[in-house]
Write a structure and sequence with these properties.
Layout (H helix, E strand, L loop, with lengths): L1 H9 L11 E7 L4 E6 L5 H12 L6 E7 L2 E4 L6 H5 L4 E2 L1 E9 L2 E5 L3 E3 L1
Parallel strand pairs: 1-5
Antiparallel strand pairs: 1-2, 1-8, 3-4, 3-6, 6-7
């Protein structure tokens, strides 16, 4: 949450997009968008680990979601980007922080949304 968002300001950012890969737009809660990319064959789990590493976040606390209408659908970690989005050249996904509250698993928006 808050502590991790402070670390982001001090650490490096996302790697630059590579031609031929699917473009991903990364937004902080406030501020300008940052851009990166990933191959369509990238597994959701691997993308989550890479984005969290580049942003200085703990990958065990963040999950990638796909925006479906007005709902967020959790992406299965073993699936690839192509499984969820087809052959789109740009895609909208969200990186949400997972918070454990007693026995219920609850999600809240983190300081970051990947789009």
């Amino acid at each position: 949450g808050w502590l991790q968002s402070r670390r982001l300001r001090k650490r490096g950012g996302l790697r630059k997009p590579i031609a031929g890969e699917t473009r991903l737009w990364v937004f902080r809660a406030v501020g300008v968008a940052k851009e990166t990319s990933a191959e369509a064959t990238t597994r959701i789990r691997d993308l989550n680990v890479r984005l969290c590493a580049e942003l200085g976040l703990d990958p065990t606390r963040f999950v990638i979601f796909k925006k479906v209408g007005d709902r967020d659908l959790e992406c299965t970690p073993d699936q690839t980007l192509r499984n969820y989005f087809g052959d789109a050249s740009e895609m909208e996904i969200r990186l949400l922080e997972v918070i454990e509250v007693s026995r219920f698993r609850r999600r809240r928006w983190s300081a970051f949304a990947v789009t």
